[in-house]
């Protein structure tokens, strides 16, 4: 994206929405120092130009009894398209998986998994991942404590 496309007001709008996605034009206008109608027009343009993929609510894992999370490095048996597609379809159907990234290096994919506790995580591994014919190897790293967790993206590069 061209850096000239987003001015300081656009960046302030995006930053505010990353902090609180349900802000309306009136609330945005107080933060950005523009009129509500200008904020509304800018917000519409930012949506049309796909700067906003979607606006979601962030739920509390604690209140949903999701006190356990792990990163799972997955190595596939083969790198053919059928095998990879089977894996990606499997992952898409697993509600415990909150992210799936394709990687370079030893692992093919990195999953972020959230469950209730170690016992439910072990059941997830045994019943849903280790049994998958397309998977060769699974390695887990359990999250002991989280020091930073954000969905906010840097606006320094746009």
Looking at this protein, list some descriptive labels.
158 residues, alpha+beta, 4 strands, elongated
Secondary structure layout plus pairing:
Blueprint: H1 8-19, H2 25-32, H3 36-48, E1 68-76, H4 81-92, E2 97-102, E3 109-115, H5 118-129, E4 135-142
Antiparallel strand pairs: 1-3, 1-4, 2-3
Characterization of this structure:
The protein has five helices and four strands. It has 158 residues and is an alpha+beta fold. A hairpin with a 6-residue loop joins β2 (97-102) and β3 (109-115). The chain is elongated and about 55 Å long.
- Quaternary structure of the protein: single chain
Whole-number average pLDDT? Answer: 94
Biggest sheet details:
4 strands, antiparallel
Overall 3D shape: elongated
Strand order of the largest sheet: 2-3-1-4
Distance between the termini: 6 Å
Instruction: Supply Rg.
Output: 20 Å
What structural class should be given to the helix and strand makeup? Answer: alpha+beta
Q: Which regions are unreliable across 5 or more consecutive residues at pLDDT < 50?
A: none
Counted beta strands: 4
**Helical element count?**
5
* N-to-C series of helices and strands: HHHEHEEHE
Strand content: 15-25%
How much helix, percentage-wise, in residues?
Answer: 25-40%
């Amino acid at each position: 994206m061209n850096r000239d496309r987003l001015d300081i007001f656009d960046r302030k709008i995006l930053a505010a929405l990353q902090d609180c996605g349900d802000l309306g034009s009136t609330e945005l206008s107080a933060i950005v120092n523009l009129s509500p109608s200008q904020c509304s027009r800018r917000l519409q343009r930012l949506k049309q130009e796909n700067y906003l993929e979607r606006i979601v609510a962030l739920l509390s894992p604690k209140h949903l009894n999701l006190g356990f999370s792990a990163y799972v490095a997955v190595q596939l048996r083969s790198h053919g398209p059928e095998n990879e597609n089977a894996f990606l379809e499997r992952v898409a159907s697993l509600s415990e998986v909150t992210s799936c990234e394709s990687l370079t290096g030893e692992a093919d994919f990195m999953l972020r998994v959230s469950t209730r506790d170690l016992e439910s995580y072990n059941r997830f591994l045994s019943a849903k991942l280790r049994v998958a014919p397309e998977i060769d190897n699974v390695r887990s790293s359990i999250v002991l404590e989280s020091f930073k967790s954000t969905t906010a993206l840097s606006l320094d590069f746009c």
